[in-house]
Amino acid sequence: MATIHIKLEHPTNGGTTPCDGTVRFIPIRRYNRGDTVIIPKPFEVTLTNGEANAKVIESDHTGCWAITELPGTPQEYTRYVQIPTTSETLEYTDLIDVNPSTLLPTTVTAGPLLQIALAADAQAALAYSRTHPETLVLYSEEASINAMAATVADIAAVRSAAQTQANHATGSAQTAAAAAETAAQNLQSIENTAQQIGVVVDAITNAAESPSGSQATDEPETIPEGTTTEDSGEE
């Protein structure tokens, strides 16, 4: 049962004064609880210094209570409210006013009938709702769970394939890096050999351009016998 805290006051010049009187609770509908029909009894609570606490059987959405304020004056006021299921103390002003005939909140106006459609799963329900926003779409929870499980399995398979490809790519990258390192070493070896060949070529070139090792002498040339010269005077 819920506890309802009620506080009523009269307006006065520049303020308010507590009301004296009673508050009457009358159930509008009886309801079933299992195989038992519950018939709440009407009752009244007396205001003390304008306040009172009343323990009321909850009505949920199957009924309501008519609460009549009798503040000790000829005037009275009746509210039709629903009492929620709770063990806490509720303020009287926080109770929701309902229409006693329809049990709908008084703030809800009449509208078109609710349209309901059935869908195979959540995905189909979403697609239908996008084109029929005014329709309540129901779907099988089991089918949706199975569809979600299949989707998760597909995602796991794609992830596994991607991981395998990544591993292969990593291996290929490592192989390519090793080949590149070997090629660099071979290139360095070729450059070293070329430098050595260049040194040998330079040495050969220098040797070819230098004198053969013989030197000229100051001795006069030997004139063969029987050879005449222009200055000898012989004819």
Tell me what you see in this structure.
It is a single chain. A hairpin with a 2-residue loop joins strand 2 and strand 3. 8% of the residues are buried. The chain has two helices and 14 strands; from the N terminus they run βββββββββββββαβα. By secondary structure, the chain is an alpha+beta fold. The radius of gyration is 57 Å and the shape is elongated. The C terminus is likely disordered. The chain has two domains: 96 residues, Sandwich (Immunoglobulin-like), CATH 2.60.40; 90 residues. The strands form five sheets. A five-stranded antiparallel beta sheet has the order 7-4-9-10-12, with no helix packed on it.
Explain briefly what this protein structure is:
The chain is built from 2 helices and 14 strands. By secondary structure, the protein is of the alpha+beta class. Residues 223-235 have a biased composition (Low complexity).
What order do the helices and strands come in, and which of them pair?
Blueprint: E1 2-7, E2 9-12, E3 15-18, E4 22-27, E5 31-33, E6 36-38, E7 43-46, E8 51-56, E9 65-70, E10 77-82, E11 89-91, E12 96-97, E13 115-119, H1 122-131, E14 135-139, H2 141-209
Parallel strand pairs: 1-11, 13-14
Antiparallel strand pairs: 1-8, 2-3, 4-7, 4-9, 5-6, 9-10, 10-12
Q: What is the chain-wise order of helices and strands?
A: EEEEEEEEEEEEEHEH
Q: How many structural units, i.e. domains?
A: 2
Cα distance spanning the termini = 171 Å
CATH architecture of the largest domain: Sandwich
Largest sheet: 5 strands, antiparallel
The percent range for strand residues is 25-35%
- Widest β-sheet, arrangement of strands: 7-4-9-10-12
What's the tally of helices? Answer: 2
Oligomeric state of this protein: single chain
CATH topology type of the largest domain: Immunoglobulin-like
Taking Cα atoms only, what radius of gyration do you get, to the nearest Å? 57 Å
The helicity comes to 25-40%
Shape: elongated
Query: What's the number of extended β-strand segments?
Result: 14
Low-confidence stretches: 212-218, 227-235
Average per-residue pLDDT, rounded, comes to 79
CATH class of the largest domain: Mainly Beta
